[in-house]
Structures are given as C-alpha cells and as structure tokens.
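[AMINO ACID CHAIN]
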Amino acid sequence: MHVSLIIDQYMTLQNAMHFRLRSILLLISASIATVTLARAQAIAPTRVAIINAQKAVGDTQEIKKAQAALEAKYRPRQQEIDALQRDLQNIQQQLNAPNVAPERAAQLRADGTQKQKRLQRLSEDLQADVNNERQDILGRSGRQMTEVVKKLAEERNLDIVIDITNTLYFKPALDITADATAAYDKAYPAR
C-alpha cells in the first residue's frame, strides 16, 4: 500500500506540473499573439483619402471649356426651339382671344399642331445629340481622372481613395478633390 500511495502522489504531482506547464505555454502563446498583432497594426496603418469625383472632373478646365463649346455649338438649335415655343404661345393667345373666326381658329390649331411636332422632334434630337457628346467627353475625362487619382495616391502613399458619394463622415483634411482637379489640369491642359 505504501508503494501505491507513493505512485498516487507521484501521478498527482506530475498532473499538476503538466497543468502548470500547459498554462504557462498558453500564456506565452497569448502574449506572442498580442505583441504580433500590436506590431502589425503599428507597422501598417491604412492611409485613406476622400474625393468627390464628380466635382473633381466637373471643375477641370477641360470640362469647362468643353461645356462652353457644347453651348456654342448647339446654341442655334436651342434658339430655334425657343422661337418655336414663342410661336406656340402666340398661337395659344390668339386662340384664347374673343371673337376668333372658326376658319382662323382651325388654321391656328393646324399651325400649332405642326409647330408642336417640329418642336418635339427638335427637342428630342438636340437632347440626344448633347447627351451623346457629353457622355463621350465625361467618359474620357473620367478615365483620365482615374489615372490622375491613382498617381496622386501613389505619390502620397495612400492605401485607398473613397468617393464621397459612399461616405457618411470624413475629416475635411482627407479630401483630395481640389488636388485631383489641379493635377488633372496639369496633366491634361484644356486645348
């Protein structure tokens, strides 16, 4: 019996030492993981910037010049539309006047219908032409702005640039919109 008591005490002591050793190893592992995580966070902070891409492109000299060119190019067609609208208003006033002869009213309605159809066609054609040309300009400028923003991000060692439309809050110091516009104007001067 005496030997079995010694063996039991030995086993209890061995289990206690094994438990302590496991506890120490777990504590060391947790400490190493904490230090490693802290170092990783200290080494690689994420650098973020915010941009209003629509404003950045819209404020470029190239877009301002293109907008003025579009207005000048399509001004005669817009003036024709405006003249037709005035003619239609004039026809409506004449139809609303007292004592309009039935033959005159019929002629005014026919003229109004013809002018209304012409106005509709001109307006739709003008809108389509302007939209197509504007989309071409904005598409090209948007691609160029993307390249400018990438270059700015690399120069400033930024990890991510987020468009303002997807952002609820940001510090104003993170906004690079004006810088992007200036860089764009430098890279792509208005011709």
